[in-house]
User: What shape does this take?
Amino acid sequence: MAEMTVELVAVERRIWSGEASFVLARTTEGELGIMPGHEPTLAQLEEAGVVRIDPVDGSPLTVAVHGGFLSISPERVSILAEFAELADEIDVSRARAALDRADGSDEEGAAARKRAEVRLRAAEAATAGQ
Assistant: This one.
């Protein structure tokens, strides 16, 4: 099986680093599936989205990611996020409460609502085994 080195780093910490066979991320241009040997690419991540990493060893990782960039070379993927949270670290009740509080009537409220929705989507995807 072909492998590539993947590193996901948020402003406050390194989230995950290792060998993977596949990465799925949503950029401002659309969803991008990445396998070893991918064409070099630099892309802006969607403001709030879910990233999936399929490690060579272990279960797929689902991560809620907010803002940042994705840098791809044939052997390496670097995901540099403003904020990122592994799905199994997400407190679902807090995310639901944040969604209920976010009114979405202004730009700040709409961004908070989107972040809460992405956190819930990541947590649900991880529990569904995706």
Q: What stands out?
A: The beta strands are 4-10, 14-27, 30-34, 41-44, 49-55, 61-73, 76-86. The longest helix spans residues 107-127.
